[in-house]
Design goal:
The complex is a heterodimer of chains A (445) and B (206). Helix content of chain A is 32%, strand content 24%. By secondary structure, chain A is α/β, with parallel strands linked by helices. Chain A folds into 3 domains: 4-43 and 231-292 and 389-431, FAD/NAD(P)-binding domain, CATH 3.50.50; 56-105 and 294-387, 2-Layer Sandwich (Guanine Nucleotide Dissociation Inhibitor, domain 2), CATH 3.30.519.10; 119-216, Guanine Nucleotide Dissociation Inhibitor, domain 1 (Orthogonal Bundle), CATH 1.10.405.10. In chain A, strands 1, 2, 10, 11, 12, 13 and 19 form a 7-stranded mixed beta sheet that branches. A 7-stranded mixed beta sheet of chain A has the order 8-7-15-16-17-14-18. In chain A, helix 1 (14-25) packs across helix 14 (412-426). The longest helix of chain A is centred in the middle third of the chain and has 18 residues, at 201-218. Chain A starts with a strand and ends with a helix. Chain B has a single domain, classed as Rossmann fold, CATH 3.40.50. Chain B has helices at 21-30, 75-78, 93-97, 99-110, 139-148, 165-182, and strands spanning 7-14, 45-52, 55-62, 83-89, 120-125, 154-156. In chain B, strand 5 (120-125), helix 5 (139-148) and strand 6 (154-156) form a beta-alpha-beta unit. The chains are: A alpha/beta (445), B alpha/beta (206). Chains A and B meet through helix 3, strand 6, helix 9, strand 10 and helix 15 of A and helix 2 of B. Chain A: GO terms for molecular function: GTPase activator activity; Rab GDP-dissociation inhibitor activity.
Chain lengths: 445, 206
């Protein structure tokens, strides 16, 4: 330390590591610090010992679970959409060379007390009991419209301006039933509540398109992919990118304190009696808690099991969506499952998560509908964490604070936050659109 | 012509900042040396095709990318290594003393299934400096340490002059291959996300 940097980044969460990587590639001098002795911050993956220490207060996990290091338990469980924004970032930065991915086996939806597979093919769709026959025909017309819709081709709009027409109006045009709307809105467009219905339909249509394109990308049983060894690999991969381009890394730096000048502008960071100077500070909410405001809470349960989630066709990795209406809640609830097949647990073990936007202070009671679907559980940990948004003026104080991770099932909002922060920090726009088609072109060769 | 099966072997290089880890890699793979010292910038991993007996395999040599300077290597860096190279500077007693820390850190982070027999190779670098007059770690002392840690193979090199670098990496490759063969890793069928193949520094010697 005691040096001068363009940017000091605090916290090695996924967002911060992506930003570190991008800024270092841009030629900025970056110092990246974390109070923990591991990468990932709130979005890390913990081994068994770390998990026990954090949730049980001791460091002696049950011996029958296998060795500690065989476990990589995600603290923010999400799957990556195969055609989604995070994949674009990975390709854009060539960080894929540090990682290995597997397709997620299946995506399921909870409806009237039962779990159904979200159809991955036309054949599956025809057989699926989620819709009656006539409803399937109406839904098919809707899907064709979505598939053919191109922003820049007015002919494909069929007279509808999706920036004006609401999702509800679009759905009404195709005469879809409530159950179908629920299914499409929550299991395909992955909305967490129903507020999207009264907003312009563009976002809704785009989301359904991403889902379909992600399904087609690897033709697995779901639109998702997931890294071997868990999501904690992602921040480490981006951190390495930053280091390769000159970023300096300091883990295990307690009490990183941001220093301000008389005008309230950030000028550096002090830790262990040493101060590094900088022009800008980037951090997660926990490092500048007086510049963020609480915007919600996420409730979650982390479970270790010896079997897959029942009724998921023995999927080694799966997502189950429980739409809010099915549970009488304001937000959807999600089940995630991954296993030794992804090298995140010992042989024969599965890690399951139940997660939702918290509506009470009692996660045990609130998460029960999801936990009941899991069957027998070897170990279970409950947690509620607050979500924060920045409320500072970054132009005045030079601080760029990320938003906490939400309960969504994927990383689209995560990357959106990163892209916005990147623009604020550098004044440049991050263009991720070209790379994927270039990658697709490479695939076709 | 006997058929050739390709194998990918991961080798990681550990040691204090400034002992010449990146230079060793570059000398071996690219036959290049740079006097310009900056705490490693731009080094990532390099690949080299190596033939051993009738088999062709790819050595993937991972640099620390400078993250070792403040003890900030992540567990992902260590995972799946087939051989671990420990480098020190013969002109720096501190870098030699820290070999023990690096070896122990590796065993903790990588958690090899057979820690007693995991293959290490130790390299004492920079034997060229001042014609050897500023040397502070004797060869005898280094060899004794290597012997005490399970007879770790030992080499003295000059990345600058290219002395003994090839020999050291031949040994590394041999040990990595032996380790890679014995380890029956569970390799799930992964998918190619970016279809971005890492351009290889082809240095195949047949």
């Amino acid at each position: 330390m005691d040096e001068e940097y363009d940017v000091i980044v605090l916290g090695t969460g996924l967002k911060e590591c992506i930003l570190s990587g991008l800024l270092s590639v841009d030629g900025l001098k970056v110092l990246h610090m974390d109070r923990n002795d591991y990468y990932g911050g709130a979005s890390t993956s913990l081994n068994l010992t770390q998990l026990w220490k954090r949730f049980r207060g001791d460091d002696t996990p049950s011996e029958n679970l296998g060795s500690s290091r065989e476990y990589n338990v995600d603290m923010i469980p999400k799957f990556m959409m195969a055609n989604g924004a995070l994949v674009r970032v990975l390709i854009h930065t060539d960080v894929t060379k540090y990682l290995n991915f597997k397709a997620v086996d299946g995506s399921f939806v909870y409806n009237k007390g039962k779990i159904y597979k979200v159809p991955a093919t036309d054949v599956e769709a025809l057989k699926s009991p989620l819709m009656g026959l006539f409803e399937k025909r109406r839904a098919r017309k809707f899907f064709i419209y979505v598939q053919d819709y191109e922003t820049n081709d007015p002919k494909s709009h069929e007279g509808l301006d999706l920036n004006q027409v609401t999702a509800r109006q679009l759905i009404s045009k195709y005469g879809l039933e409530d159950d179908t709307v629920d299914f499409i809105g929550h299991a395909l467009a992955l909305h967490r509540d129903d507020s999207y219905l009264d907003e312009p339909a563009k976002d809704f249509v785009d989301r359904v398109k991403i889902y379909a394109e992600s399904l087609a990308r690897f033709q697995g049983g779901s639109p998702y992919i997931y890294p071997l060894y868990g999501l904690g690999e992602l921040p480490q991969a981006f951190a390495r990118l930053s280091a390769v381009y000159g970023g300096t890394y300091m883990l295990n730096k307690p009490e990183c304190k941001v220093e301000f000048d008389d005008n309230g502008k950030a000028i550096g960071v002090t830790s262990e009696g040493e101060t590094a100077k900088c022009k800008k500070v980037v951090c997660d909410p926990s490092y500048l808690s007086d510049k963020v405001q609480k915007v919600g809470k996420v409730a979650r349960a982390i479970c270790i099991m010896s079997h897959p989630i029942p009724d998921t066709n023995d999927s080694h990795s799966a997502q189950v969506i429980l739409p809010q209406k099915q549970l009488g809640r304001k937000s959807d609830m999600y089940l995630f499952c991954c296993s030794y097949a992804h090298n995140v647990a010992a042989k024969g073990k599965y890690i399951a998560f139940v997660t939702t936007e918290a509506e009470t202070d009692q996660p045990e009671v609130e998460l029960k509908p999801g936990i009941d679907l899991l069957g027998p559980v070897d170990e279970i940990f409950y947690d509620i964490y607050d979500r924060f948004e920045p409320c500072n003026d970054h132009e005045a104080d030079g601080c760029f604070i990320s938003t906490s991770y939400d309960a969504t099932t994927h990383f689209e909002t995560t990357v959106k936050d990163v892209v916005e922060l990147y623009s604020k920090i550098t004044g440049k726009v991050l263009d991720l659109s070209v790379d994927l088609s270039a990658a697709s072109a490479a695939t076709e060769e | 012509m006997p058929s050739r099966r390709r194998t990918l072997l991961k080798v990681i290089i550990l040691g204090d900042s400034g002992v010449g880890k990146t230079s060793l890699m570059n000398q071996y793979v690219n036959k290049k040396f740079s006097n310009q010292y900056k705490a490693t910038i731009g080094a990532d991993f390099l690949t080299k095709e190596v033939q051993f007996e009738d088999r062709l395999f790819t050595l993937q040599i991972w640099d620390t990318a400078g993250q070792e300077r403040f003890q900030s290597l992540g567990v992902a860096f260590y995972r799946g290594a087939d051989c671990c190279v420990l480098v020190y500077d013969v002109n720096s007693m501190k870098s030699f003393d820290n070999l023990n820390n690096w070896r122990e850190e590796f065993l903790i982070q990588a958690s090899p299934s057979d820690p007693e027999n995991f293959p290490f190779v130790v390299i004492g670098n920079k034997i060229d400096i001042d014609g050897g007059n500023s040397r502070v770690v004797s060869e005898k002392k280094a060899r004794a340490w290597c012997a005490s840690k399970g007879n770790i193979p030992y080499f003295e090199t000059s990345a600058k002059e290219g002395l003994n670098v090839e020999e050291a990496f031949q040994c590394i490759a041999k040990n990595a291959l032996k380790s890679g063969e014995e380890e029956e890793l569970y390799l799930p069928d992964t998918i190619d996300v970016g279809n971005s193949s890492q351009p290889r520094a082809t240095g195949c010697e047949c």
